[in-house]
Amino acid sequence: MPPNKTAAPDAPPSARDGPPRPPSVDRLLSHEALQALVDAHGRTRVLETTRAVLAELRGPRARASGAPVDYAPGALAGEIGARLARGDRPALRRVFNLTGTVLHTNLGRAPLPEQAIAALELAARHPTNLEYDLAQGSRGERDDLLAGLLCEITGAEAAACVNNNAAAVLLALNTLALHKEAIVSRGELVEIGGSFRIPDVMARAGTKLREVGTTNRTHLGDYAEAIGPRTRLLLKVHASNYEVRGFTASVDQRALAGLAHEHGLPLMVDLGSGALTALERWGLPHEPTVQEALQDGADLVTVSGDKLLGGPQAGIILGRSSLIAKIRRNPLRRALRIDKLTLAALEAVLRLYRDPDRLAERLPALRLLARRPEDIETVAARIAPVLQARLRERFQVAVERCESQVGSGARPADRLPSVGLAIRPAGRGRGGGRALEALATALRELPVPVIGRVTEGALVLDLRCLEDEQEFVGQLDSLQPGHRSGEAEPP
Ligand SMILES: *Cc1c(COP(=O)(O)O)cnc(C)c1O
User: Fold this and answer.
1) Dihedral angle computed from the Cα positions of residues 8, 10, 16 and 19, in that order, rounded to the nearest 10 degrees
2) Which residue has the higher pLDDT, 478 or 400?
3) pLDDT digits over 213-249, tens only?
4) Does the Cβ of 168 fall within 6 Å of ligand 1?
5) I want to staple 167 with a disulfide (CB 3.0 to 4.6 A). Which of 162, 456, 472, 483 is the partner?
6) Under 8 Å CB-to-CB from 105, ≥6 apart: which residues?
7) What is the pLDDT of residue 245?
8) Residue 133 CB neighbour total at 10 angstroms
9) Atom of ligand 1 nearest to the CA of 105
10) Which of 163, 192, 253, 408 has the most ligand 1 atoms within 8 A of CB, as the residue to mutate?
């Protein structure tokens, strides 16, 4: 139906007795406030939203409430516009990670360096030589694009890349030990983030798991006894997200490699976080590197791209050429392959490793991990009074020392000294917990949601990962703590 051009859009509601009558959709749409929405969102969506809003205003709930309805086009346009804007909000949104966990799996792990973002954009926009050999003018291999850099950095003979480290483990086991056995210590049968369990992955890879030792102690002899005609490899899994302390024993990787090689078997090491460089240089705790694992006799090493490496989600398999060649021939690889955007970003990240002196400056994951508490404190001291003013007398904001962690399973027991804003409800009365929860909710409702952590009666915003101070402070104006009903006013 075409819009009714003759109707005056702002015609006052009927002056007759009884409730005002809703305007026709056509008349509404010809009003300039709604025309602006049509320009922004398209006629179809505005039409649908307008009908929905009008239907609600006429609906039983609105009638039951008995509240007078404002049918003025200006008022309706406000509501319609707000709905359209809410509907336009993407599902995947930027957030401020102030949890203190730098590589937070639920918040997307490593932020990418600018170089990687540029590479990703280029690969998104243009055709590329993804699987095309420019020198020969013939088909190429996407893995070859990264293998050179990976081997240069790690000293590995060969490399392959897949979708993530879980895929790397799956593909390697399926290639080397299908319907055969892999031996692994009971102390290393780990679960990572609830969905990656080494025993389950091995089962799906078609590999029979041969467990040896006990949860806390495994000896070289345990492995030696388990080796039989069906054994195809020894597997060592890096204890990445837990620590067994006390009466423990695990077999040194070199000794394990020696044993494997005596029997003509490969040793595979799933490093998980796997750093590509020694992190002590930046004052961080030691994390086993890929280079060390290879030097200590591993024939295959698997790592994640988006943990300590600081790149995009990817799985990297490094090691002996003969094994990598077999892995590359596995038909499953097609289902697990690295996509072109990831490949572009990963290459750019790997290039940064060639210049270790500037690595911490350029690689955000490392820059955040290496941030000194003194520097974080300076930021905290600037922000605290602004936040305090915004929260008025309802909460107390204090600059306090806290501890960050690496995250993604790296160095679970190590903490990085940091500084945060500890927010506590003013006064000691009941309802403080609810007030804090309401504040945490309000922070998550900001244009760029802020995610902190509630501990021991305080909401702590660890500022280690805050680099956009201006943006953070700028949006505090729209913070509305406790605007929801149900929040207890502190006494
Ligand atoms: C994180 C991790 C994995 C899984 O890696 P994703 O890249 O998340 O798939 C596997 N093994 C270990 C030891 C890990 O730490």
Assistant:
1) 130
2) 400
3) 887 788 999 999 999 999 999 999 987 555 666 777 7
4) no
5) 162
6) 193, 407, 408
7) 65
8) 12
9) 8
10) 192
- Nearest atom in ligand 1 to the alpha carbon of residue 410 is 15
CA of 42 to the centre of ligand 1 (A): 44
Cβ contact 171:268 at 8 Å: no
Is 342's C-beta closer than 6 angstroms to any atom of ligand 1?
A: no
Token pair listed for 378: 């300076």
> Ligand 1: does its nearest atom lie under 6 Å from the Cβ of 237?
yes
Is the CB of residue 308 below 6 angstroms from any atom belonging to ligand 1? Answer: no
> Is the minimum distance from the CB of 71 to ligand 1 under 6 angstroms?
no
% the chain with pLDDT above 70: 90
197 or 12, higher pLDDT:
197
The span from the first CA to the last CA of the chain, in angstroms, equals 58
Q: Which atom of ligand 1 is nearest to the CA of 168?
A: 9
CA distance 324 to 367: 33
Give the span between the Cα atoms of 124 and 392, in whole angstroms. Answer: 47
Token pair 């680099």 in the structure block, residue: 467
Domains, the chain, in order of start with CATH, read 13-88 (no CATH), 96-104+368-478 (3.90.1150.180), 114-362 (3.40.640.10)
Q: Measure 104 CA to ligand 1 centroid, in angstroms.
A: 13
Cβ pair 103, 110 in contact under 8 A: yes
Select from 189, 240, 316, 336 the residue to mutate for testing ligand 1; criterion: most ligand atoms less than 8 Å from CB. 240
DSSP 99: S
Distance 362 CA to ligand 1 centre (A): 24
How many angstroms is it from 325 CA to the middle of ligand 1?
22
The protein residue whose alpha carbon is closest to atom 1 in ligand 1 is: 272
Q: How far apart are CA 170 and CA 147, in angstroms?
A: 20
* Overall pTM > 0.70: yes
**Distances in whole angstroms, Cα of residue 358 to Cα of each of 279, 372, 375:** 13, 17, 19
At 15 the pLDDT is 47
Residues 6+ apart with CB under 8 A from 134: 140
**Ligand 1 centroid – CA 198 distance (Å):** 9
Q: What are phi and psi of 237, to 5 degrees?
A: -110, 130
Which among 254, 241, 242 has a CA at the least distance from the CA of 292? 254
Residue nearest to atom 12 of ligand 1 (CA): 272
* 8 Å CB contact between 185 and 239: no
Q: Compute the distance between CA of residue 114 and CA of residue 364 in angstroms, rounded to an integer.
A: 9
Backbone φ, ψ for residue 271 (5° rounding): -85, -25
Q: Residue 41: name the closest of 92, 2, 87, 1 by CA.
A: 87
